[in-house]
Every structure is written in C-alpha cells, then in structure tokens.
Description:
By secondary structure, this protein is of the alpha/beta class. The chain has helices at about 5-15, 25-30, 50-55, 65-75, 90-100, 115-120, 125-140, 160-175, 205-225; strands at about 45-50, 80-85, 105-110, 145-150, 180.
Amino acid sequence: MTVFRSALLFLIGLSACRTERPSPPAEVAQTQAPATPAPDRPTITFLGTSLTAGLGVDLEEAYPALIQRKLDSAGLAYRVVNAGVSGESSAGALRRLEWLLSAPPAILVLETGANDALRGQDVDSVRANIQAMIDRTRAVAPKTRTVLVGMEALPNLGRDYTRRFRAIYPELARRNHLTLVPFLLAGVGGVDSLNQADGIHPNPRGHEIVAENVWKVLKPLLVSGTS
Length: 227
C-alpha cells in the first residue's frame, strides 16, 4: 500500500468522526502542562493532534510514551511531554504554542495539518501557521530544536491541492533547516489490523510502528546534538 493511499484512507476515516471533536476549552484542558525540567532531564514536547494524544488507547500506549521507553533504553536522559489535542488545526496549535514554550523544551516535535487538510483549509494559510510556529519557537526559545512531521491531504480536493499540501512539509523543512519525519502514519494508515475499529486512529500495535517512524528520525538528532 502506498503512502498516498494510506493517507487517503486515514483522512476519509477522520472525516466520518468530525462531530465527535471536543470543544476548544476541553481540548486545552487535555494537554499536559509544561513543567520545568531538571538540568539533566531536558524535555521533548510532542505538539500534535489526536494521533499524538493517543485517542482510543491508554496514554502509555501512545507513540510519545513509546518514545520515552526508547529514550530510557538508549540511556538518553530526556523527558517526553505529550501535548496532543484531538481535532486541533494548525491555527489552534499556534494559539497554544506560547503556553507550551513557557518551559522551553529541548526539542519540539510538531505534528499538525491533518485536520486542516480535512477541512480544505487554504494551503498558504496552513503553511503560514506552521512557519509562524517555527518563527515563534526560535524567538521565544532559541535553543529549542524543532522536528517537523509531515501529513497528506485528501485527493477529492483536487490534484493541485494535494500536491501543494504535501509539499508544505519538505519545503518548510528545507527553508528552515529542520529535521523532517516525512509521514507520521507510514505503514499504518489504512491498514485495518493496525488501527482501531473506527479505522482512523492507530491501535497499540499501530502506535508501535508510528513510534518507529519518529524514532528513526529523532534518535540521530539526539545522539548528534544537531538540528
């Protein structure tokens, strides 16, 4: 199954549950509050959607928690903060960012865009929101390194839209010299056995694969100490 088809099946499923999104105040309440890390325990903050929040699985089964286990096993002294919120757009993530940066993480993993694509948001606006998050992070927390996570758009909005949306992530990664996870759901999206009954969100096994997708990009960054 191609990455494009995986993205298509995931976003079609996401469309079916649009009415189940929590209200914005409830979404913000779900986010773990940033905490000041100990000097020898810097944080890695995962800012994202329900894919990061781990909707439908235990928090310990969501991929950020699995990344924590990998960090511990590798002897890398970082603490993971899961700041995922279900249904959030890139504009919503931008609004939350300042609060999350009140305790600057060592690394910000930025997963956003799936809900923008679902709603057919203007590609230039999505790009501008993500660029604003990158710029704001560098202004407020210049030592924080950002890892950008790619997403795909539905093809029913037209080939031009899907092409332009897909290009947002590698384009911003190149322009801003960021580390890029090409597609969070590679190998998981659209695979029944790796997703919950809703066909949308990864099950525990799916989260294991998602964690591998992120880890293979994140680990070299942590080991080398460069962005």
